[in-house]
Amino acid sequence: MLDTQKIAVIGLGYVGLPLAVEFGKIRPVIGFDIDQTRIDALRDGRDSTLEVSGDELRKSVHLSFTTDPADLAEANIYIVTVPTPIDAHKRPDLTPLIKASETLGKVLKRGDIVIYESTVYPGATEEDCVPVLERVSGLTFNKDFFAGYSPERINPGDKTHRLPDIRKVTSGSTPEIAEEVDQLYASIIIAGTYKAESIRVAEAAKVIENTQRDLNIALVNELAIIFNKMGIDTESVLKAAGTKWNFLPFRPGLVGGHCIGVDPYYLTHKAEAMGYHPQVILAGRRINDGMGAYVASQLIKAMLKRRLQVDGARVLILGLTFKENCPDLRNTRVVDVVAELRDYGVQVDVHDPWVEPAAAQHEYGIALLETPQFDAYDGVVLAVAHDSYREAGAAVLRSYGRASHVFFDLKSVLSSDESDLRL
Questions:
Q1: CA 292, 297, 301: angle at the middle one, nearest 5?
Q2: Could you tell me which residues come within 8 angstroms of residue 290 by beta carbon, excluding any fewer than 6 positions away?
Q3: Does the annotation count 326 as an active-site position?
Q4: At what angle do helices 95-105 and 130-137 cross, to 10 degrees?
Q5: 61: nearest Cα among 89, 13, 105, 29
Q6: pLDDT tens track for 280-330
Q7: Entry pTM
Q8: Sequence-separated (6 or more) residues with CB below 8 Å from residue 286
Q9: Cys-Cys link to 308, which of 27, 122, 153, 303 (CB 3.0-4.6 A)?
Q10: Catalytic pick from 39, 259, 313, 335?
């Protein structure tokens, strides 16, 4: 039954495009995005996120692209993969999700299925999205149309754990639809699927995956702060502790990206709306959100100890993306370090070979260096562990600094004796 039905994927970013490409290899797929520039590039075989190669796009022979909402009427199954960010006050912003639901409501037909992949709090699909679909379409939920939820598990920049290789959680608004949704994903997911008992269970499973990681990173970040006060190298401690078979290999650092630094706020928002005020989750968030300021303060202290003039000093930041070896700038917390250093009166230059200069300027107002100057900086911060920086090695990376400078290796890329500071 499902093989004859056309799929429409709404939102062609890091999540939606790989999904559309995989389905497009075996069945008709409409890839929809509101960004005409993005659609033009994909039609030309270019993916700016670098998640999908030109060859993979060519192999997805049943995939077409559009910005016209009217084209969506041809589909029977809709998969929504739009962003779910937070606003300036750390509150969930469902605007993209609601707008996508409104767009679908205008083309929804009897028998259609709408599947959401965007990360939300438990209940959002049925309490926030479905009412929009009903209102705009005039159809009745679980009578005329149905819903499903299958949380995305894309790991940007990871060429080993790709969409078909990551087990997929699925769910549906009725037992029959749950089975259909599960079979749909099973057709492209080599690693297999897991059918959750309900949409709310699937939503909750997704949001705690990243909340758990966030808390574990917060723990090692707090340990790093403590060990720094004791004069103990954190990486050395973690390596020693890691010799035990069940020690979890988390490392300290800046916590950004589209998931880990965002998803916990969705869960805590829902909890607070129900009268419960989370403590552990928000404590972890406070620690991780404060790491940018901590990094900047540690660099400034180290510079002062070397009697380097702070006001007017030059500092080079190596890396701007939220993680290594990908161009993803979403919610990168490197910008916190930049902002804090500028508050100290420091002139900050940023270099990142993975980022398009126009994207850095548009998103954060940062003018990227094409090539850093040698012997020019009072401080150098290795913020992102891109392979190109690893391969360059200590001699090259430290040569950007003046004769007297501070080198801060946030990711322990270099050995302890090759850097002045590590988290």
A1: 155
A2: none
A3: no
A4: 30
A5: 29
A6: 999 999 999 999 999 999 999 999 999 999 999 999 999 999 999 999 999
A7: 0.92
A8: none
A9: 303
A10: 259
